[in-house]
């Protein structure tokens, strides 16, 4: 029986998990959460995940884990045929962990601060401080990619999927400047050619449309 992922296609963290699963050849039972009707706040979901975040994974043995970064590490550790996406080498793993924390604490945090007041609160603009934060994130990522093929080295890792899910969304709202951040653009294009990118394609457009459709037209 396949693990069940309680997810939302528009959710970048859910997409990161879905890309990871596709990359390791793991079939997931996808159960889309009715976010707008607050299904994630209902007792059944809160009992499963007290933080009521999306995504949440329920493995076939009943084990429950949430937070996309923890889920990706768990799936690769349990189901992948090798450790290529999350190497056991402590130095390689440390760099991947840093990138995961960068995605969680900086990039996705910015995306959430932008999206929540627009999608839920009816705001029709992106605050200047958040726009500047996104541009700064692009600059950091461009530096991370200097001399590297992928975000954590010359090998693809779960950090690429994590950052890709959020950066690809932000790029459709606040486009990456190809003149200033060419390495980010090249990385995005390379990622879009991956077979597992299909797990990102639908949701990234859906999330971007949810934001862009509510922004005031200039």
Automatic annotation (TrEMBL):
Domain named GST N-terminal: residues: 1-83
Alphabetized InterPro entries for the sequence: Glutathione-S-Trfase_C-like, Glutathione-S-Trfase_C_sf, Glutathione_S-Trfase, Glutathione_S-Trfase_N, GST_C, Thioredoxin-like_sf
Quaternary organization: Homodimer.
GO BP terms in the entry: glutathione metabolic process
Domain GST C-terminal as annotated: residue spans: 89-210
Protein name as annotated: Glutathione S-transferase D4-like Protein
GO molecular function terms listed in the Swiss-Prot or TrEMBL record: glutathione transferase activity
């Amino acid at each position: 029986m396949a693990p069940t992922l309680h997810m939302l296609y528009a959710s970048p963290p859910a997409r990161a998990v879905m890309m990871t699963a596709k990359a390791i050849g793991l079939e997931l039972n996808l159960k889309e959460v009715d976010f707008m009707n607050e299904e994630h706040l209902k007792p059944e979901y809160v009992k499963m995940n007290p933080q009521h975040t999306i995504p949440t994974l329920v493995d076939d043995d009943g084990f429950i884990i949430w937070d996309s970064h923890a889920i990706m590490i768990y799936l690769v550790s349990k189901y992948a045929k090798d450790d290529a996406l999350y190497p056991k080498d402590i130095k390689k793993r440390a760099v991947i962990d840093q990138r995961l924390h960068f995605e969680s604490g900086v990039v996705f945090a910015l995306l959430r601060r932008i999206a929540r007041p627009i999608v839920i609160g009816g705001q029709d603009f992106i605050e200047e401080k958040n726009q500047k934060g996104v541009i700064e994130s692009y600059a950091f990522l461009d530096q991370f990619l200097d001399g590297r093929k992928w975000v954590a080295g010359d090998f693809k890792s779960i950090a690429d999927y994590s950052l890709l899910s959020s950066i690809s969304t932000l790029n459709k709202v606040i486009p990456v400047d190809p003149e200033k951040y060419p390495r980010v653009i090249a990385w995005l294009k390379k990622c879009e050619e991956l077979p597992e990118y299909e797990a990102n394609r639908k949701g990234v457009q859906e999330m971007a449309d949810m934001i862009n459709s509510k922004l005031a037209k200039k």
